Predict the structure.
Amino acid sequence: MAPDTPITPELVASHGLKPDEYERILKLIGREPSITELGIFSAMWNEHCSYKSSKKWLRTLPTKGARVIQGPGENAGVVDIGDGLCVVFKMESHNHPSFIEPYQGAATGVGGILRDVFTMGARPIAAMNALRFGSPDHPKTRHLVAGVVAGVGGYGNSFGVPTVGGEVNFHPRYDGNCLVNAFAAGLARTDAIFYSKAEGVGLPVVYLGAKTGRDGVGGATMASAEFDDSIEEKRPTVQVGDPFTEKCLLEACLELMGTGAVIAIQDMGAAGLTCSAVEMGAKGDLGIRLDLEKVPVRETRMTPYEMMLSESQERMLMVLKPEKREEAEAIFRKWGLDFAIVGETTDDLRFRILFEGKEVANLPIKQLGDEAPEYDRPWVEPKAPAELKPVDLSRHDVADALLKLLASPDLCSRRWVYEQYDTLIQGNSLQRPGGDAGVVRVDGHARKALAFSSDVNPRYCEADPYRGGAQAVAECWRNLCAVGALPLAATDNLNFGNPEKPEIMGQFVKAVEGIGEACRALDFPIVSGNVSLYNETHGRAILPTPTIGGVGLIEDRTRTARIAFAGSNLAILLVGAPPAWGTHLGQSSFAREILKSEAGAPPPVDLAHEKRAGDFVRGLIAAGTTTSVHDCSDGGLAVALAEMAMASGIGATVPGLVDADPVAALFGEDQGRYLVAVSRSEVEAVQEKAEKAGLFAPWIGTTGGETLALGKARALPIAELTIAHESWFPSYMAGTGTGAAAAA
Amino acid sequence: MNTAVVLLPGLNRDRDMIAALTAITGKAPKTVWQTETALPQADLVVVPGGFSFGDYLRCGAIAARSPVMRAVAEAAGKGVPVLGVCNGFQILCEAGLLPGALMRNTSLRFVCREVKLSVANAATRFTAAYAKDQVIRCPVAHHDGNFFADAETLKRIEGENQVVFRYAEGTNPNGAINDIAGIVSAKGNVLGLMPHPENLVEPEHGGTDGRGIFESVLGLGPAKAAA
């Protein structure tokens, strides 16, 4: 875009700005904006950067806690883990770019979230990825899975962070819009956290990292719109990742931070130079002046418009202590990175852009940043889900159903995925993917470890957004408890459709309400997050998907639990069971895969019960009473037992269920339940303690043998379970599985 | 007991290697930056894993031409033990210190999992702690670990017992010819291997099978296990 491009209504619309928003711009600056200014407004006021539809509701979430050092609003949340250390973490989506160009979209999603973490002075120590794809039968799905997984691995592996957990789900509602939610956590000292708020007038603004190119121009605006058939034309808005440069940038930044040269630092993510500069200035109540000729570029004849909107990766902006300039520059030269003073802080609260001696933009910085527009979008209460029709469950064979569930796309082993991720680099991974939570020891600390889990059941959220939102939090919290961790705090990645539709806005409002309720009840504040709206193609929205990424602290890493049975002849207790053990089949995996029904209400979430059960199980682990724990979630009791058996190679016998229909009891997805294996001599004492805690903990079976025997169903050899569990993903990806047949 | 670790931009298992060497020798290794032209006195020089210079060209090709690698070659020529792991192995091959090449995995995918290794030659200075044909556990994490050598070279390194580790029990993760996971130079003082012994040296790693390589070359640890 040439600097003298005339502003037409079409041009305004193509920048994603609504007529009333453009009116607001005219009023704000009292004249027609230049094309560069229009681009800047477009970048700052799009949904992705401004949270204009979601802000009102995000404010209702609990964000404070005794251990919270920094809540939402910075590059990432910061939580105290004691001994002068803190964990810095966030989750962020890269949905739209990944659908357009899966490898680079996913790779740069990982790169972006890693940068958010190390911008704050933390060395990344763990990553997770929550991925949702369309139906396996959809012709595009296999290509997206292959590209996204390779992209996540390609970036994270090269950068050198272990991927310790995540999720992969399939559902036709993601056919036209996959989700890539990337989580990263880092470790920092509490006295060396770095923020983006600029301080001091007349100080140099320094550009760090890779050079600026034309890639990703308009990316954030693209990510704030629905998809249609023109999607292929949007490929140039996807950035290209360079994990090598990012790794160098990490080392250079941490070295630089050690010198005391950094006053404020902000990574260039969405809307690149524009967003980072505005945020630093607006937060610090300062103006910023940029001289664009000084920006390191890798292409010739770039216009100010392109430079301001480029989303080239692996770049940072910093306010520098002037006396440290030489020392700082030497570090960046050593790592082969650019270091350029491109402007300065001012006291006029203006965002001024100079190029070739001319002022190409002069805008009020506060109104661009923290005073951007905000909407109270109309919303409607979500409709109650259709009821799950009563069916004769007795005709379903438990063993067949279990094998089918274990081999289903959503419940089968994710080994094909996670073996493409480096899960053990840094040498601190104590529990890798496949368990309830990833566990990473705190490097250099004699006893502590951190646990990470990412969870949401989008079908629950579709049926009941409030309950689904609360369940996502509860399940994440439960997974952390199941490894013995005290859940500390969470990050939320809220993926929804078009918020201008009252039904979608209703899903959002209710899900946030459920999340807030659960976070308050479980003392699990939200310290960072990201909202991704407009996940629609041809007017069809994704399932509401509020992904929750949680972090827990293990004080003594010799006292943890895994999902594998620790030995034979152990008693299996179902801690937190309702009197009939649980029978809720609405929205269950059983209903979906066996009954072919996605009807019914999701299981109720009793948060007080969750709290009691989680605290109790964590106590058992800390006391050394058990080292084998698994939470019951998708697929219910039967799938959880099978997973414990497969992980250990040790079978189990679970005799008849008192007063319960075996199908409902084995596949019901009642919440707040854990399977806990303890020595038989401990049973009585544990049950007594459970009773005191207000929990029912029936002894449902015993470990041992080489089969899983559930009630009267035929006993299934572990080898048979394992084959069912491990086969689907590799055969699907090789084109020999279900998807190929259906797509042919 | 002195060890040295070569640092090149893009390597990322340098910290793992430094931690392992520190744990095993009780002393932090000296680090040597890519631009340095001389190595400190060391009983073992390690080129660790990662993605040197992004590995955007052939893996290890650019790293092999960095100034510090000339110093590594000189040390190797003088008989100093040199260990290259993963990207380090690729770099040593590219630098001509080891024969053969590491091609893309046959799956064309990155692979991170635990494999079994059999000790093909327990008579090297890196494997004295193991018995011949002993099978050990070891993790791999690579995209280009498919060892290849032309027929003549292969015949030579097999004939000279330069193959030190082979993937065992059907666990070859990358299609490497003759299941080759690690080889030594003709003089026996340079070892390259794709698996990561540095990630299996302490109980919290889930095992200590990887220690033997370091203990052997540094003359530490328990006497050789009975065959």
In short: The helical segments of chain B are 14-25, 67-77, 87-94, 151-159, 211-218.
